[in-house]
Amino acid sequence: DQQVKQNSPSLSVQEGRISILNCDYTNSMFDYFLWYKKYPAEGPTFLISISSIKDKNEDGRFTVFLNKSAKHLSLHIVPSQPGDSAVYFCAASARGGTSYGKLTFGQGTILTVHP
Amino acid sequence: EPEVTQTPSHQVTQMGQEVILRCVPISNHLYFYWYRQILGQKVEFLVSFYNNEISEKSEIFDDQFSVERPDGSNFTLKIRSTKLEDSAMYFCASRGSGGEVTQYFGPGTRLLVL
User: Fold this and answer.
1) Which tens digits make up the pLDDT trace of B46-104?
2) A65 Cβ under 8 Å from any chain B Cβ
C-alpha cells in the first residue's frame, strides 16, 4: 500500500534555516491531509492539517502547502529549532464512503536540526 | 489539555496467549481507532469504531482481533492468540464528531510476542 509516500527517509538542517518535508499521494479520493510529529517511544502528535479546498495553511512556524494537480504536499518549518528534531509523518484521509476518518500514513521522514 | 491514554506501556507475552490493550480516549470524542507500527515500518490502520460498532477494519484485523467499549470511557483491543508477527507498537486514537478529521493519538503500547 503506497498511497502516501515520503520519499526522503531523512533530512538534516541547520538551526534557524528552513526545513522542507515532502509527501506525495496517489489516491484521488484523499481530501484532507495532516502532518504528525513523533518522538521515540511516544505517539504521533498532531501538527497541522489542510483541506483539499485550500492550497496553504499556516500555524506559527509551520506551513503546509498542497498542490492537488501534482498530488503533492509539503511542510515548511521556519525557523527550524533543535527541538523540532523528530520523525514527521504525512497522513491522508478520504471523507465520505467507508473510509471516513481512517488515516493512511507515509513512511516518515527523520528530521535532525543541528545547533 | 485532554489527551488519549493507553495502558500498559509495555507488554511481553508468549505466542498463543491473549492480550488486551487498553485506551481511554478524549472524553467528548465519538470516533475511536487502533493503529499499529511494526518496527521500521509505517503506521498502519487496524480498525475504526463508532456508535458501539466497527465502522471499518483493515485486512490485518482478522478474527484474532476484537475491539470493545465496555463502559463510557475505555476502548480495548484484544488479540486472542498472539503470533510473533503481532509484535509492534499499538496506538489508540480518537476524534470528535461532525466534520472534525484530526485524530489524537495515545502514547502507544509496545507489544512483544515471544
Assistant:
1) 999 998 899 999 999 999 999 999 887 899 999 999 999 999 999 999 998 767 789 99
2) no
Instruction: List chain A residues with CB under 8 Å of B102.
Output: 34, 46, 49
Q: Note whether A49 contacts B35, CB cutoff 8 Å.
A: no
pLDDT tens across A3-22, in order? 999 999 999 999 999 999 99
Nearest-by-CA chain A residue for B41: A107
The strand pairing partners of A46, in sequence order, are A36
Residues of A in contact with B42 (CB under 8 A): 105-108
